[in-house]
Task: structure prediction
Amino acid sequence: MLRYDASAAMKQMLVPWHNSLFRVSGISNVQPESKINVTAGNLYQKFVLSAAKLNVMKYLFSTALLCTTLLASAQDKFDDVFAKINADVQQNSKAYQTLKYETETIGHRLTGSANGAKAEQYAFDLLKSYGCAVRFQPFEVESWARKTISVEIGKDKNSLTKMKAVTLAHSPVKADITSEIVDAGNGLEADYQGSPEKFKGKIALIYLGVLPGSPAGTKSLHRSEKTAIATKYGATGVIIINTVKNGVLLTGTASVTGKLIPIPAVCIGLEDGMALKEKIKSQSQIAHIAMTNFSGLIKARNVVATFKGTELPKDKIVVGGHLDSWDLATGAIDNGIGSFAVMDMARTFKKLNLKTKRTVEFVLFMGEEQGLLGSKAYVERTKKDGTLAQVKFMLNYDMTNDPKGFSTSRTEMKDLFTAWGADIVKIDTGFKNLFNAGAGLHSDHQPFMLEGIPTGGGFGGKLPNNSGPFYHSDGDSFKLVDEQGLKNTVRYSTMLTYALANTPKIPVGVQGEEELRAFLESQNLKEPLTIAGEWRWK
Ligand SMILES: [Zn+2]
Result:
């Protein structure tokens, strides 16, 4: 028997003990018992044994969970239903033609506008015509719409020339400023810290993405976050340079809160912007920005089609996509393809009379473009009526096209999602069963995710007909839509929804506050959420 000075022995022992913690969780190489030195006294023995017991418990629990998942997925015999869904959507999908009709007869679907209200009614009537149990979920919000804009640039007031520009949403109701333009590069914190004073009272010229030649690993921020940073450094206006060639102009919100911002924000074309950056290097330039906009309370309506669950009616799977769009074109890609896919999933559910254990709610949100207004209203409503806990999972379809796999915020879903995906590959090898776990912001899944609710959707698809550059632009029109890509979104997402609403056990629950905090930090979302004033942790 070895004789030791207990405390020294303890310290010495703990280091190898820590390493063994890992080892224990792997169970196969449990050494501590054999290494337990009798001289350390029974205190140490008790400590070691209870810790070992704890890890054994943890290991048993995670193995049990894994087994149930594997067993559950093994028990998920959805092939027949998947085949039915596949056949029906391939033959009878109405997504393409109904989107075509909407873009030709109504046009854009800006929330709070006459078009927006028509689009809400059109969606309601369409779902009704499919036989769905459909309802409006009205909400009242501050909304914004553009009116007039003029941007002139020159070396002085006497040599101003007009430049093509669009207003970014939530710019002031009225603004008329003339000031020097200062190049703010990518518009990130780092771009200001060198000379913060330089931007006070000036108009900040900001590149929408990350400029070529920027330090490796430079991560861009959303245009609203870049505008917030410029405001913080005292800029009186913001000119954002779009990243798309051929003078394409982009709109979208410049507000992180969905409320009016104190300074005017506009977008100019890539070529104009890069030429302006060059000019400023040799000759200072001023800009005169004059605009008027509408801002006020409006009524809008989410459209909700409900399929009540059989065994677990109080467990709900929310399947959403925003119906609203910006007003520069008809929003065919953003988000015609997502929202009309969601309506066609509901059509398929009704047509095939699909029964699910859990309740499924297909939701067409309005107000997404103006700050996730409809999805925030939906979540607030469930909080008010005490049904938030019923939402077990949220699938979001925003510009989803021809998915090749599934994504989710929760990596623990991998086994189930890929097990179902493998069944889909048997039906169509065009589906690649890709899997992605991770989280981002700025779409309707966000209000659900910030309540700890697991989210997901399609993954790995490409936007059709090189439509990416026309995002939020005057080029986002129906000719960009691909019919088969849309059908693929409908059929694979209907299968995912059916499986999620029927699988015996969903292996993830709602994250608690600390778990959610750690998760959001792990996804690098703390900074953008802090800028948006949505980081509630101390
Ligand atoms: Zn969108």
Summary: Residues 322, 334-335, 368, 398-399 surround zinc ion (CB under 6 Å). Residues 1-38 have pLDDT under 50 and may be disordered. Residues 156-284 form a domain with the Glucose Oxidase; domain 1 fold (CATH 3.50.30.30).
